[in-house]
UniProtKB/TrEMBL annotation:
Keyword Iron-sulfur: no
InterPro entries, A to Z: Polysacch_pyruvyl_Trfase
GO MF, one example: transferase activity
Keywords for the protein's UniProt record, in alphabetical order: Transferase
Protein name per UniProt: Polysaccharide pyruvyl transferase family protein
Domain Polysaccharide pyruvyl transferase residues, every copy: 17-327
TM spans (from-to): none
């Protein structure tokens, strides 16, 4: 019997945002269940959860305050230094023995301050130098790219044995096709997010029959909203909205469970809210691993969240969600599972009305008539990935970039 293929997944498994680790763990588990030896290489060269937390919020605030031109120049020297000293050597060590590379999942095809274009270019160059077949899987792609970010990724893609581009939503596929399909010879195909396999990766904890199921509130920072999306909701407004929502839920008799996905800026927001939440009798928990995050969400009767992988983990565990609008990736996910009605805008929805809506979701249980089909499709998409990376596939050299 030939040895199992050793697939290295390039992603942000150990990101402070545990949603990234959740989808990475689910992707690894799904591939292993199909006979592949799969393991992740963190693009930031982290090797465990909790690394890289210090200073992240300060850096985001500093970059946000800079004029666009100065910001673009300020990131170049640190990126070049980290590339040479940290990231490239880490990738080289971790790729030993690999037979294929998968870039995914998560919102990796994006250009915030040249971060991912730089890291993906290093990863693709390492794959090309080793003759490894490459596929993108379940990535999201952003619309806005700098000239330099586009140039870096386009140059790195040239000459790579790119077998497939599987992206997680229709807008991402359209953006890839418009920007990179001609240069690579690969059009994007839509697949399910591997985070949908969360309930198969970790068995949901049993619900306590003697207690009401909690309503979950996943707190996200205004800073994250500002950095990754456009919003009219100010920082003080968001804190007031959270406090009023928690008060309305607790006054209605809900058992409120409040948590974050783990990002330091989200934890800071939680710390600001904590005194008021405790006074209301809310339960405050902080997951430290993706398994913890899944275990916090799975027993809930309903969830309120901005963070997409909190929403995905909830859907995987048949927990209905009041999903708060902020990024079109969330809109696209909800549309893909037929749950557009779960979406709401905290900038226009009063917290008391939000409490009423989530209470109704908890009471009714949500519509999961498509759930079994969606989960089966997420698994079948991993079969498509393995087929694309099979040695039997004949690599087609991409057209050279001009």
């Amino acid at each position: 019997m030939p040895p199992a293929p050793l697939i290295r997944l390039m992603n942000v498994k150990f990101s402070p945002n545990l949603g990234d680790g959740l989808l990475s763990d689910c992707l690894e588990a799904g591939l292993r269940a199909r006979g592949a030896a799969a393991g992740s290489i963190d693009l930031a060269a982290r090797t465990g959860y909790g690394q890289g937390l210090a200073g992240r919020g300060k850096v985001m605030r500093l970059l946000e305050a800079m004029p666009r031109g100065l910001r673009a120049q300020a990131v170049r020297a640190p990126l070049a230094l980290a590339s040479a000293r940290k990231w490239a050597p880490h990738y080289a060590r971790e790729l030993t023995g690999a037979t294929a590379m998968v870039i995914g999942g998560g919102n990796l095809l994006s250009d915030h301050d040249l971060n991912f274009p730089t890291k993906l270019a290093l990863a693709l160059t390492a794959a090309r130098d080793r003759g490894l077949p490459v596929a993108f899987h379940a990535c999201g792609m952003a619309a806005d790219w700098s000239v330099e970010g586009d140039r870096r990724l386009r140059r790195a893609l040239a000459g790579v044995d790119l077998r497939a581009v599987f992206l997680r939503d229709a807008p991402s596929c359209a953006r890839w096709d418009a920007r990179f399909a001609e240069a690579t010879g690969q059009r994007a195909k839509q697949v399910r997010d591997p985070g949908l396999l969360a309930a198969l990766t970790w068995a949901p904890p049993p619900r306590d029959p003697g207690a009401a199921a909690p309503i979950g509130l996943c707190v996200m920072s205004h800073l994250a909203l500002r950095y990754h999306a456009r919003t009219t909701l100010g920082a003080a407004d968001l804190l007031r909205w959270y406090r009023a929502l928690a008060r309305a839920l607790c006054q209605d008799g809900a058992r409120l469970r409040v948590f974050t996905n783990g990002a330091p800026e989200d934890r800071e927001t939680m710390a600001l809210l904590a005194p008021d939440l405790r006074a209301l009798g809310a339960e405050i928990v902080q997951p430290e691993t993706p398994a913890d995050l899944a275990a916090v969400i799975a027993p809930c009767a309903a969830l309120i969240a901005f963070r997409m992988h909190a929403v995905i983990a909830a859907y995987a565990n048949r927990v209905p969600v009041l999903a708060l609008k902020w990024d079109d990736k969330l809109d696209a996910f909800l549309a893909s599972v037929g749950q557009e009605g779960w979406l709401a805008d905290a900038a226009t929805l009063a917290p008391e009305a939000a409490a009423e809506r989530v209470g109704q979701l908890a009471a009714e249980g949500g519509d999961f008539s498509r759930h079994a089909t969606v989960i089966a499709e997420a698994g079948a998409d991993l079969d498509r990935l393995l087929a694309a990376l099979s040695p039997a596939q004949t690599p087609i050299p991409p057209p050279k970039t001009p």
